[in-house]
Amino acid sequence: SAVISQKPSRDICQRGTSLTIQCQVDSQVTMMFWYRQQPGQSLTLIATANQGSEATYESGFVIDKFPISRPNLTFSTLTVSNLSPEDSSIYLCSATRNSRLGELFFGEGSRLTVL
Amino acid sequence: KNEVEQSPQNLTAQEGEFITINCSYSVGISALHWLQQHPGGGIVSLFMLSSGKKKHGRLIATINIQEKHSSLHITASHPRDSAVYICAVPIIQGAQKLVFGQGTRLTINP
């Protein structure tokens, strides 16, 4: 199995600021993903983090709002920019070693509250 | 209609009871994931299954591909099993991008 360290675990931010969430995997993985979980809702995929190239965003999510980096196979960051209270959610990263269907690993989540 | 539907949405039971959580999906898939989310938000992958049944400790997961239905069972439930259980299926067959059910919030009382 793989262990994913995600930080911060929680943060409270002011409107208009940005928050960067880091995700570190303890072994090389092929694919990394970022999800958002709004209060009382299930997970929604934001983007697939591609190593060394621009992330692939899902419908409704744009790079200006959610810039993502993945400089190597074990590390990725998600920034939530120009925060508004509607961005208050849990953000999770996940990873897999298999480009097709394989076991998934998740971080512990980052709980963001925007005031 | 959601592509992945779970039932029940909430379940409260006494310690020791046998628990069943159901998941029905409308998309064609090659496998299905069962996940457990703890109150802090972290998620653990419990099972990935494409046919039949898998067992891990007190947890059993079954899937019927023809009927597009899966169940998660917990035997001899314990308060530490209290969590949200989520099933997820690939958006595209064989791919890693998932669609998630709404989750079942399970509470086991001592």
Percent helix range of chain A: under 10%
Terminal CA distance of chain B? 36 Å
Assembly form of the protein: heterodimer
- Rounded mean pLDDT of chain A is 91
How many strands, which pairing sense, and closed or not: the largest β-sheet of chain A? 7 strands, mixed
Return the average pLDDT of chain B rounded to an integer: 90
Distance, first to last CA of chain A: 37 Å
Alpha-beta classification of chain B:
mainly beta
Q: Please provide the count of β strands of chain B.
A: 11
| Biggest contact | A-B, 28 and 24 residues
Shape of chain A: globular
- Could you spell the SSE succession of chain A in H and E letters? EEEEEEEEEEE
Proportion of strand residues of chain B? over 45%
Task: Name the shape of chain B in a single word.
Answer: globular
Share in helix of chain B: under 10%
Sketch the major β-sheet of chain B.
6 strands, mixed
Number of strands of chain A: 11
Short précis:
The complex is a heterodimer of chains A (115) and B (110). By secondary structure, chain A is mostly beta strands.
Please, could you describe this protein's structure?
- The complex is a heterodimer of chains A (115) and B (110).
- Chain A contains no helices and 11 strands.
- Chain A has 115 residues and is mainly beta.
- In chain A, strands 2, 4, 5, 6, 9, 10 and 11 form a 7-stranded mixed beta sheet that branches.
- In chain A, strand 5 and strand 6 (56-57) form a beta hairpin.
- The N and C termini of chain A lie far apart (37 Å).
- Chain B is mostly beta strands.
- Chain B contains no helices and 11 strands.
- In chain B, strands 2, 4, 5, 9, 10 and 11 form a 6-stranded mixed beta sheet that branches. A 5-stranded antiparallel beta sheet of chain B has the order 1-3-8-7-6, with no helix packed on it.
- In chain B, strand 7 and strand 8 form a beta hairpin.
- The radius of gyration of chain B is 13 Å and the shape is globular.
- Chain B starts with a strand and ends with a strand.
- The mean pLDDT of chain B is 90.
